Amino acid sequence: MSRRLLTLLAALVPAVLLFVLATSATVPLVAMGPGPTYDTFGEAEVQVEGGVETVPIIEVRGREADQTEGTLRMTTVAVRDRLTLADAVRFWLDPVQVVVPRDQVFPPERSRDEVRESNAAEMVGSENSAEAAAYGYLGIPMQPRVEGVDPDGPAAGLLRVGDVLTSVDGERVSDATAVVEQVGAHRPGDEVRIGFTRDGREETTTTRLASAGPDGDPDQGRLGILVGDTPADGTDVTINIDPDVGGPSAGLILAIAIVDKLDPGNSTGGAKVAGSGTIQPDGTVGPIGGVTHKIRAAHEAGATEFLVPAGNCAEAVQDPPGGIRLIEVETLGGALDALEVAATGGEPPTCG
């Protein structure tokens, strides 16, 4: 073998090894960028027994849903994990992507499944808060309903999911907070009488309260149920979202979509609107992560208006794409007012 060939091989072997490592071995980095958007006025596919069914993302029962116009998109951030070195370099060179240490997204003490479960739980909480905020904004009367029963608790076999609670020891209860307060005013072992409605029939049952356990007040009685508020007029809203979407930041958009479905009129005025923001049951809007990625995702989907939580405005105005107006919002009511102003040709409050 000639010296020239040996020299060539000596140079090629490290290069080949480097190429293999760069395209196969993963690095502790993730890429973050614009993710999918979902038109909450549209439809979603859900798994049902025997296949897949297409249903509205905001599904209304118990009353006729109002017709919607325009689009109202919830936005997401795409997180790409298990990057090779070549992937990381490619995303680092992409101006719409951000490459960050993996620990910032997936804490080392938690598995991917644990992070996914946490995000799913946050999404459920966001959906519940969105419903509560929408019902409160519309002034729909509420009533406390059993949402879960501890199989080992005092209410097991007596109360069922779906029962509407009407009284605790003869005292009327108008919401979930009143139920918690009145039950909590009793000590473990106290006998209490619970009034409820099931399938339209008024009933009562009696049981002895258990202890709140080591995580609660030992002097406070526990009924062993999960209770939430539900519309007293029979309205029932189901939110059908891709199960891979998690986190709390869809609350604002979901609340607006619910209001639009339940209230005559059109919140968007037929415009292409997107946004993001957490929401509290009282309608307060909170900041979210990845706002710049979400604005770009909305722009790519054709949105011309983007609802930005006030706490994200300073970040949102850093080099946004052209042709999209950043509307500053602090509450659900304020967001709806701003959209009405925009729909009539006015100037809503904006970031910057």
Plain-language structure description:
- This protein is α+β, with helices and mostly antiparallel strands and 352 residues long.
- It has 2 domains: 34-83 and 124-137 and 235-343, Ribosomal Protein S5, domain 2 (2-Layer Sandwich); 142-231, Roll (Pdz3 Domain), CATH 2.30.42.
- The chain is built from 8 helices and 20 strands.
- It has helices at 3-24, 85-93, 112-138, 176-184, 251-262, 291-300, 313-316, 332-343; strands at 29-39, 43-48, 51-56, 58-61, 71-80, 98-101, 142-149, 164-168, 171-172, 191-198, 201-208, 210-211, 221-222, 225-231, 236-239, 272-275, 278-279, 285-286, 305-309, 325-329.
- The strands form 7 sheets. Strands 6-1-5-16-19-20 form a 6-stranded mixed sheet. A 4-stranded antiparallel sheet has the order 9-8-10-11, covered by helices on one side.
- Helix 3 runs parallel beside helix 5.
- The radius of gyration is 26 Å and the shape is globular.
- Mean pLDDT is 88; it is low at 15-22.
Q: How would you summarize this macromolecular structure in one to three sentences?
A:
With about 350 residues, the protein is α+β, with helices and mostly antiparallel strands.
Q: Which features would summarize this protein structure in a list?
A:
Ribosomal Protein S5, domain 2; Pdz3 Domain; four-stranded antiparallel beta sheet; 352 residues; 30% strand; single chain; six-stranded mixed beta sheet; alpha+beta; 20 strands
